Amino acid sequence: MSHWLQASSVKMWAAIPGALLLAALLVAPAGAHPQWKEANCIAVVDDSGKLTLTVKFDVPSFLTGKLPQEAPVAELDALMTAPRALEDAISPARDKFAKSLKVTADGERVDVELRQFPEAEAIRAQSARQGEVDRYPVLLNARLAAKIPAGTRRVEMTFPAELGTVFTNFRMGMEYQVVTAVVPGEAGVFDVELPGGGVLRFFGSGFLHVAPMGWDHCLFMLAMLLCAETLRIALLRSLIFTLGHAVTLSLVATGTLPPTGPWIEPVIALTIAWAGYEAWRGAVVKARWVVPLAFGLVHGLGFAAAASERLTGWDSSDIAGLLVGFNLGVESAHVVVILTASLLLGLAAARRPDVDFKRPLSALVAAAGVILFVAALLGPAI
After folding, report:
1. 96-108: per-residue pLDDT in tens?
2. Do both 125 and 270 map to the same domain?
3. What average pLDDT score do residues 29-57 get?
């Protein structure tokens, strides 16, 4: 029994420092900012790269140089009531806000223009409207603008530490929206995809459009190989297909042709089925270039239909980079597909010279086209 009492006494005395600390924490905020609120930011970037920032924050606490939850009421009252105190604090606070808010694009800092900062009259008026009991916090907006370079893939934003955590809503167009909490001393990171970036970037996009994402291109190139008398003819047909693809993409990108509707997808699937059937027949003659040209035109319409909305706001240099780089990437991927398929067919024929691999592969391409055609027709209904 005495042992239990001794242990209990030790635990009781050991708990006293913790209780005192808890009491101190509870008492300390009594003189601090009541009902403080987190800052928030709405960041909007358009396709031209114009970034607008609207930051809503507790202005009096920022003017005192303290976090909203740590600004003492007495200090806030002195700021609001002492003659010229509020006016004298505005100018240095504005400069600090502009210098502390940083924006980088792919690691490079961009210039940020502070276009609006709360004035003393607006701060007093907002506090008065809130009433004596709720005179703090006074949440008002600062507005800033920046220009994000073409081709930017990542934007980072750092806010003044005195704002505390800033809940940031980053928007780009109608499809991209990210909400995150940006804590003091750290950057909010936002992945974007702005127009531009040069031919090399579009080259990579064109290559990926075929391999690994463009099954329609891969199947059609396989059909072109299977129905060609030589590898050279298959590569020439690939080039003609890409030229047709470039023509319709150019016409839609420049606004000469309107973007097509969803009907283009089943038509593309039919071109694959037809190409596989022609290869299975083995009846395509050497001079028949019209088939890859016509089918390239159709496939170009399909990609242009998918990309047309994202071309809004692009200037002529962006579109030129797209047309040159993208189509070079497409053709390079075609060559890789054809050469790889030719190598595999050659190895298979060397191992089994008694087997005709071309006809069953052609039938598979035709069947895949039919399946894609049916799926495209039923897609909206599924």
Report:
1. 999 999 999 988 9
2. no
3. 81
Burial of 82 (0-12, 13-18, 19+ CB in 10 A): exposed
Two tokens, residue 182: 């940006």
Range of the domain at 104: 34-191
Q: What count of residues does the chain have? A: 382
Structure tokens at 362: 């052609």
How many domains does the chain fold into? 2
pLDDT exceeds 90 at position 360:
no
pTM of the model: 0.49
Report long-range pairs for 304-312 (Cβ below 8 Å, ≥24 apart). Answer: 304/248, 304/249, 304/251, 304/252, 304/253, 304/257, 304/259, 304/260, 305/252, 305/259, 305/260, 305/261, 305/262, 305/264, 307/253, 308/252, 308/253, 308/259, 309/259, 310/47, 310/195, 311/195, 311/253, 312/47
pLDDT of residue 317: 61
Distance CA 43, CA 157 (A): 10
pLDDT of residue 271: 83
Q: For position 64, what pLDDT does the model report?
A: 94
Q: Are residues 285 and 324 in the same domain?
A: yes
207 and 131 in a single domain? The answer is no
Residues 330 and 352 in one domain: yes
**185 and 215 within one domain:** no
